[in-house]
Amino acid sequence: MRQSVTATLASQQAAGVSSRRHGKSAAMNRLRIYLRPRAALSSRERTMISALGIFLFFAIWLAVTEGGFIQPFFLPSPISVAKRLFQMVAFEGYLFDVWSSTWRVFGGFLLAALVAIPVGILIGNFPFFRSLLEPLLSTARYLPATAFVPLMIIWLGINESQKIAVIFVGTFFPLALFIATISEGVSDDLMNSAYSLGASSRQVFFKVLLPACVPSIVDSLRITAGIAWTYVIVAELVGADSGMGIAILQAQRFLLTDQVIAGIVAVGILGILTDAAFRFAHRKLFPYLH
In which residue ranges is the amino acid composition biased (Polar residues) (predicted)? Predict the structure, then answer.
């Protein structure tokens, strides 16, 4: 009897050791798959990995602040920042600042898109317009939009048009070059096939070239919308009586670090929501690409 019990325990221990080894081996294999370039991950795996990254970021932030490694004056804890952001939204009329910044962002961004899309398509497909416009746009791309703020104040005054113009300048040049690259990258074989089937230049342009560009153009709009959110803060630092940028500047003047970080987090949240809206629209408009 004792021998059978001993044999059973030994077999269970061996099975446990084997199971742990198998689990470690499976985990290592999965990790190798995750670290493989362009590894195919399921939607659930991508969501879990993203959640892990966010959790680690806030866990480290919470540890260094609550553990006393950094003084709250320099870096408040995420709990303090979340409480301050809630107070700003619930009791201090911060939603009005959010609305002011949001319509400035989309005002400048939409104006930039209306001009940059046709300009980019012309540059990408017509050598004449490429030679005429691309050197100017490529040079202007390296000029910081903040350098135009004094000029915009001189030309437009301290009003809403000046702030929208700063966002326009900051987004127009990269967006136009993005779209030029996209339209230039449309396969020549695709266009030659249309020509060989008897299509005219007008038909190739409107029925082949433009439809081939639209999915990537929407994606470039998503990227450029994120750039617009970065420039709204700069645009509102001068002559603004409302907006998220001026709220951050006023908090900095009174050394309210938690409010400064809360404002930065709020801009980041709005940027993420904008990005998510563009991704959702892209999936709905072009389901064959997903």
Answer: 1-16
Query: Nearest-CA neighbor of 101 among 256, 284, 233?
Result: 233
Q: Domain map of the chain by residue range?
A: 1-40, 42-70, 78-289
> Residue 112: is it exposed, middle or buried by C-beta count within 10 angstroms (0-12/13-18/19+)?
buried
Which of 168, 180, 179, 275 shows the shortest CA–CA distance to 220?
179
CA distance 166 to 148: 7
* pTM exceeds 0.90: no
- Three-state secondary-structure class, residue 126: coil
Domain range 78-289, CATH class: mainly alpha
The alpha carbon of residue 75 and the mean position of all alpha carbons in its chain are separated, in whole angstroms, by: 24
Q: What is the pLDDT of residue 3?
A: 53
Tokens describing residue 109 = 């961004």
Read off the pLDDT of residues 40-89 as tens digits, 9 standing for 90 and up: 777 888 888 889 999 999 999 999 998 888 888 899 999 999 999 999 99
